[in-house]
Known about the structure:
mainly alpha; rod-shaped
Amino acid sequence: xxxxxxxxxxxxTIYQIQEKAVITNQNxxxxxxxxxxxxxxxxxxxxQAQINLLTAQTTKNLAKYDAKLAELQLLxxxxxxxxxxx
Length: 86
């Protein structure tokens, strides 16, 4: 059970870090869009900013999924799975 608790806490931490990464990538994308509209960066650089944002969003979603799986495993191990409202 201790391992399940630690796994759950670690995955929650990873999810929180990924949320911050998405915010950072959104800011970078906005800056890149402005730079692209001003002609200071190429379309390839702008596309890379788009890809980086999508990758960060996907990674965040995967981290959330992993955290939820860890939570369900913890609830199952402690016998509380049936007592949770979804």
